[in-house]
Design a protein that fits this description.
alpha+beta, five-stranded mixed sheet, two-stranded antiparallel ribbon, 9 strands
Length: 403
């Protein structure tokens, strides 16, 4: 099956399917695949890669997701996409690299996102959140928290880290939203990717000439002759794309969920804020990144009664795995008193999100300060929400609140 445009309807990917009533739990078909132990194939179309409909196997159980994401027999990159000119060929983009090349690049990046280094960013993140909450207060009840809080915060943090003027934040947000949309045309997707590449190339060249105290300067300096300009741009691309909508939607969904579940909000208040274990439970429950990136089998794989052949494409449902009774028992509902869950919301294995500590920090600080500043914040009604069900990141597009 093929299509000439990206606008033709393709159903929501099996690995991302949600219950239509609560909008959060895995859908019935996805649950059935997980509980039945099968790896069913489903149709998908990859934005910015090609216009054809393709097929992949859905890996859905917690045990299988961890087993295969931690296996060298499952690989990323051009082997999975197999399309000339796709972003899988971009130098430096860790999402598409494997083996020694991936380890080399990840080592350069990961040292800047350790627990200690991220903790040092807390005072500045708190200042940024306070400034955004001032804007929310000035606008008064009815303001949209996504437009005025959860969406601009990760853009502000990115601009701070990279030494980029915040005047660029609207462009950055627009580019990333296009790249993560399943409904953007092939041309729109590639135009956004080209704009990001031009933007980051200028930054890399600037810090190469005049290094500063920003993250990109550090990456270029530490990479030295072993890191090309194109690779530095690719590393910047993954920081930009992975750190925007994911954090924005995680924070907005966390706020909405606490507004809708006052018993859980009471736990946050009693604890004096959103602690890290509770943040992880929210990420487990909400799974804003419902599925790991497309991958393929590098060799024949048999696990239990299921088999993949070399070259088969696979997607991993982080959503289904995070709700698997094997992980959380028979009570999958949100429980902020639950011991810190060993979830897969940030992925697992070689490609686990390197910026996860920063994401936790942004969610925790924003939620804590929001409910401190506005203790009477009121829940919104479901009919005022705009669920973003057709993006690669799950969430809502509007979150109007009153207090």
């Amino acid at each position: 099956m093929a299509s000439d445009t990206m606008t033709d309807e393709v159903s929501i990917r099996l690995t991302s399917q949600r219950d239509p009533h609560g909008h959060v739990a895995p859908g019935s078909e996805l649950r059935a695949a997980r509980d039945g132990g099968s790896w069913p194939t489903f149709e998908y179309r990859e934005p910015g890669v090609h216009t054809d409909i393709d097929h992949a196997s859905a890996i859905t159980s917690y045990r299988d997701v961890r087993e295969l994401l931690g296996s060298t027999a499952i690989i990323n990159g051009q082997a999975a996409y197999n399309v000339a000119g796709s972003r899988a060929q971009q130098p430096g983009n860790l999402l598409f690299k494997n083996g020694a090349e991936h380890r080399r690049l990840r080592r350069i990046l990961i040292r800047h996102f350790t627990v200690k280094r991220v903790a040092a960013l807390r005072p500045r993140v708190e200042e940024l959140v306070d400034g955004l909450l001032d804007t929310v207060a000035a606008q008064g009840p009815g303001t949209d928290l996504i437009e005025n809080l959860t969406r601009p915060l990760p853009a502000l943090v990115f601009c701070e880290l990279m030494g980029v003027p915040y005047t660029h934040h609207q462009d950055i947000l627009g580019w990333t939203q296009t790249l993560l949309s399943l409904d953007a045309s092939f041309e729109e997707n590639h135009a956004a990717a080209a704009a990001i590449k031009d933007f980051l190339t200028e930054i890399v060249r600037r810090v190469t000439r005049e290094p500063g105290a920003d993250l990109m300067s550090a990456i270029v300096a530490e990479g030295g002759d072993d890191l090309s300009e194109d690779e530095a741009v690719g590393m910047g691309t993954i920081l930009l794309v992975a750190g925007m909508d994911t954090t924005s939607h995680s924070t907005a969904l966390s706020i909405l969920t606490l507004l809708q579940q006052p018993d859980q909000l009471a736990i946050v208040r009693a604890a004096g804020g959103l602690a890290e274990p509770a943040t992880d439970e929210l990420i487990r429950y909400l799974s804003p990144v419902p599925a790991a990136q497309l991958r393929c089998a590098a060799e024949d794989i048999t696990l239990g009664e299921n088999t993949l052949r070399a070259g088969d494409r696979v997607m991993f449902s982080l959503l289904a795995a995070n709700w698997d009774p094997e992980l959380i028992g028979s009570a999958p509902e949100l429980d902020l008193t639950r011991p810190r869950p060993n979830h897969v919301g940030f992925g697992y294995g070689f490609h686990q999100c390197p910026g996860q500590h920063l994401a936790r920090l942004e969610v925790s600080v924003t939620v804590t300060k929001l409910f401190e500043r506005f203790p009477a914040l009121a829940a919104v009604t479901d009919d005022s929400l705009d669920w973003n069900e057709r993006g690669l990141i799950y969430g809502i597009n509007r979150l109007p609140v009153t207090w």
